[in-house]
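Work Package 3 (structural annotation) set out to generate three-dimensional models for the target panel prioritized at the project kickoff. During this period the team completed the workflow that converts sequence records into discrete structure tokens, so that structures can be stored uniformly alongside our sequence database. As a representative example, we reproduce one entry of 406 residues exactly as it appears in the project archive.
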Amino acid sequence: MRGVTEVPGAHDDDPPLLDDLMPWSVAPLRFGRPWIVAPDARTLRSRWDRLVAAEGAEREALFRPSRARTPASAVAALPGQRTSTGRWARESGPCPEPVRVALGPFDEQWLLPDHRLIDTARPELWRVAGEPQLFAVEQGYVPGAAGPALLVTAALPEGRSPAGRPGRIRPLFRRPGGREPNVAPGLLALLGERYGHEVDALEWLAWTVAAARPSPAGCRVPLPADPAAWAAGVALGRELVDVQARGALSGTKPRLRGGRRPYVRAAVPARPGTMTYDGGDEALCLDEGRISPVPEDAWEFRVGGARVLEQWFAQRTAPAEPGSLEAIGPAAWPQEWTSELLDLITVLALLGAREPERAAFAEGAGATGRAELRAAGILPPPPTSRRPASVLDHQEEGPEGQFMLL
């Protein structure tokens, strides 16, 4: 069970903590070896094949053993993944199908979903992943940092913030298939009575994305007395959630208003080394490559104080140790990376344009403090709500092919 220790100076009339309102949270994943994640799936298959072809001491060195995982580790399969549970030292089979993960803010990459390769995979998250699940990723607190305190992704998130500070991952639902909202028992009913209509899990998530504010103790969520203020925040939040989750709610990819679209004006070179911004021409420059129009809102969009576009570019261009599996990658900048960059620019431009509006909601005063929620029996949430839901009828493969009942 995880609780929160309030910082000195906290008061009962402060907005409640998200940790109490969405009680079940999970710490970030820890991959343990960087070669199991890559911006493209072909690279992961090449790395797998290289490792399988190696033998003896070379295989162990390429594997990069840690205290949690070595080629001799015996571990269970990840929920929903059909990967071998035999010890990796005996592995000779084909590469498992890579899965999409959110490596950082708005940076979706690919992961080898093999539990034998991941130091801390958080199986409880894998059990509830898949439509219509959404993950709220609380960013680590950085004093004075610009950007939202809470992000949403439909992909399984790693959960780490750009500044390296730990955050928390909060699934919207506690069970697969969109069952059992991860919300403090009684809270949705209380909000429904206050605002005069049924409040469901998605409406709650929309409000939190619009209104969550950072604090040293974690995200705080003001709850307004005025139904009109709630409705306005929810409307904004639905748009933000849909854009952040790349159209998961609307079913359509985000598009800039007015027919604007970023285009490649000059081809991205084979191995770009720098990313800069030309504000006069609204152009993003990758060496001599040029993309425009790129609104300044997209270039300046930050999370945890770090500029998102620069972080995304660094993930794809940082040098790797020669001879390591991380050094295996595309010989030239792939076209799919350019397409992903154009989509990312669109997402950041849309979010950046609404950031002043979102920040105003986050700074707005909430009428409901923790004392009122305690009086209503909402706080503290029951200890069971902080733990994963039981899965009593689901078999998962344990080490060396044994099955376990959860």
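The first strand starts at residue 37 and ends at 38.
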